[in-house]
Design goal:
By secondary structure, the protein is α/β, with parallel strands linked by helices. The protein contains seven helices and seven strands. It has a single domain, classed as 3-Layer(aba) Sandwich (Rossmann fold). The protein has a seven-stranded mixed sheet, with helices on both faces. It comes from Roseofilum halophilum BLCC-M91. Pathway: Cofactor biosynthesis; adenosylcobalamin biosynthesis; adenosylcobalamin from cob(II)yrinate a,c-diamide: step 6/7; Cofactor biosynthesis; adenosylcobalamin biosynthesis; adenosylcobalamin from cob(II)yrinate a,c-diamide: step 5/7.
Length: about 190
């Protein structure tokens, strides 16, 4: 719970398609915060997947050496709760976190999502949340793919209602949707 001397931190959402520059933009924003940065990695390591290990390594090489890293594949709400006043938590990414929890039944997922959104509003640290945009194309052929797409779309919409600013990164450009867009009221 925030104290009088430290209110809830700033919440920034960075979203966009694959390879658009989301992570790089989020890292730039974290550096600009001039606060100690904690990089919250939601990816799970898989030593049998060489390409995945290379992706993780590229992300690690881009980050400044003084940044702390926390690997948090599932307990994201607890990690945000531990965020401290005066630090910046960069969470990369919400889509990967959701994928790690995809086996949850709808009711359990909705409870986890509600807890996460509540913690986003309460954390004392500044938050930069990276999320993948899905659903701009073909409807997934399989139920699990549709569940992922729908859950992530809803999550991003709810986080977008909380965050300010909200950036859409596409084609190597970051657009502040809170300045350019008209908000819709999410059904929370």
């Amino acid at each position: 719970m925030p104290t009088d001397s430290c209110r809830s931190g700033t919440v920034i959402l960075v979203t966009g398609p694959a390879r658009s520059g989301k992570s790089e933009w989020a890292e730039t924003l974290a550096q600009q915060s001039q606060k100690p940065v904690v990089y919250v990695a939601t990816a799970q390591r898989d030593p049998t997947d060489e390409e995945w290990q290379q992706r993780i390594a590229r992300h690690q090489q881009r980050r400044p050496g003084q940044w702390q890293t926390r690997e948090v594949p599932r307990a994201l709400s607890q990690c945000l709760e531990e965020g401290e006043c005066g630090e910046c938590l960069l969470v990369d990414s919400l889509g990967t976190w959701l994928a790690n929890c995809l086996e949850l039944e709808d009711e359990a997922w909705l409870s986890m999502e509600k807890q996460f959104l509540s913690q986003v509003k309460q954390t004392q640290a500044d938050l930069i949340l990276v999320a993948e945009e899905t659903g701009w194309g073909v409807v997934p052929a399989y139920p699990l793919g549709r569940t992922f797409r729908d859950r992530l779309g809803n999550l991003i919409r709810h986080v977008g209602a909380i965050a300010d600013p909200v950036y859409l990164v596409t084609g190597g450009y970051a657009l502040n949707l809170k300045v350019l867009g008209t908000p819709l009221t999410p059904n929370l």
